[in-house]
Amino acid sequence: MSVAMPGPKAEILARRGEIAKALSRIVPGEGVITDPDGMRPFETDGLTAYRQMPMIVVLPETVEQVQRVLRYCYDNEIRVVPRGSGTSLSGGALPLADGVLLVMSRFNKVLEVDFENRAAVVQPGVTNLAITRAVEHRGFYYAPDPSSQIACSIGGNVAENSGGVHCLKYGLTTNNVLGLEMVLITGEIIRLGGKHLDSEGYDFLGLMTGSEGLLGVVTEVTVRILRSPETARALLLGFPTNEDAGRCVGDIIGAGIIPGGMEMMDSLAIQAAEDFVHAGYPLDVEALLIVELDGPGEEVHELIERVEAIARDNNAANIRVSQSEEERANFWAGRKAAFPAVGRISPDYYCMDGTIPRKALPKVLHRMKEMETEFDLRVANVFHAGDGNLHPLILYDANDSDQLERAEAFGSAILKLCVEVGGVLTGEHGVGVEKRDLMGEMFNEADLAQQERVKCAFDARQLLNPGKVFPELHQCAELSRMHVHKGQLPFPDIPRF
């Protein structure tokens, strides 16, 4: 494995049998897995370039079991890696050789749907798409929709602050989560927010959303549900160059139009998706935009005309507007299946996730094309164009170690370019291990130390998901004396249960 992780503690590994027995008393039956074959499916997440067998896998079913497992690990200084469905693309759920992998997939119930307050209360193992399925009979839906929504869990969405094709207009996970129940490493339960629109005091809810399992383990999520729009239609816009498509994106937003979604695919991704799904994509263009407009029918009709005019001004070679709900869904089917479709044309791919200002799209896409020659690897681009969230898929063969090294170097160069043009390292996949060693490109030492102080306030022993996000592990004592004063817990204003 080419990324460095915290070295295993020999004293913990020596007690593996004892630890497994203790955890089996907390989570009986088939809740603890220790045999290699049983643990093999958990050795990696969606970033399959990196693998590590966990010491023990635990699958709790109740909040009390989560509390007791975390408290036991805290008392015995055992590291814990929380895991949802394992679809993370940044290595956020990569296990540790001396750690407990805490898998939350059995927390899979929709606990309550409150249409009057437009909220749903769900367990973290519920899949993203299952929330919409639970409310669509009343004309509601859950807006964030990652491409992996059929499989990814809402707890993982909270951990990584996931987005999706409709995040441009309706926001990422952080804009759609109303409340959380979490268990801290000490076994203590805290509750943040609720069904109400906003909470007083510090924005702890915003802090936890996107915290990548470093601060606590989510055991319940309250999300906002929205009314399905009266009308939704999508346009397929084909362009002769990526630069033309990139300029069209900026011009649409500059005209004050905020589509429900605006996605971009380059020729390689278009070909792969069309061969896989047969969505009717044009194959004689270099770039394709999918622009969805939603709202009242008259408004959508007017916006379609305006977007068509903007596309023509940017040399659009192909314009097609959906004429039915089936056709609109078909347009999106190709985009949603783009990642697995690309998997059919390459043994492996490295999915990146950087975000840039929209005006930089033409420059960055042009530079990535040049990098293909420099690193001798192909890239398929499919991404959230409306908010500048790039997802270049670097194609390589994992059986060739040299190709993996070049893919990693290529990915690093892309992310550095994102920061250079005024962007950030991640838009929705998180930092994990993939971008951990690039954090210095975006943050200075003081910035990173301040972030680590927050980590210390919730996990002073650095037991939750260590080796992720921060390029260098520090003891909390090194970060200016974070401590409990006269028995007073940190953040005493958080409701505790």
UniProtKB/TrEMBL annotation:
Keywords annotated in UniProt: FAD, Flavoprotein, Oxidoreductase
Pfam families: FAD-oxidase_C (PF02913), FAD_binding_4 (PF01565)
Gene3D superfamilies: 3.30.465.10, 3.30.70.2740, Vanillyl-alcohol Oxidase, Chain A, domain 4
Cofactor: FAD
EC number: 1.1.3.15
InterPro entries (alphabetical): FAD-bd_oxidored_4_C, FAD-bd_PCMH, FAD-bd_PCMH-like_sf, FAD-bd_PCMH_sub2, FAD-linked_Oxase-like_C, FAD-linked_OxidoTrans_Type4, Oxid_FAD_bind_N, Vanillyl_alc_oxidase_C-sub2
An example Gene Ontology molecular-function term: (S)-2-hydroxy-acid oxidase activity
Class in the EC hierarchy, top level: oxidoreductase
Sequence ranges assigned to domain FAD-binding PCMH-type in this UniProt record: 50-228
PANTHER family: GLYCOLATE OXIDASE SUBUNIT GLCD
Protein name per its UniProtKB record: Glycolate oxidase
Organismal lineage: Bacteria, Pseudomonadati, Pseudomonadota, Alphaproteobacteria, Hyphomicrobiales
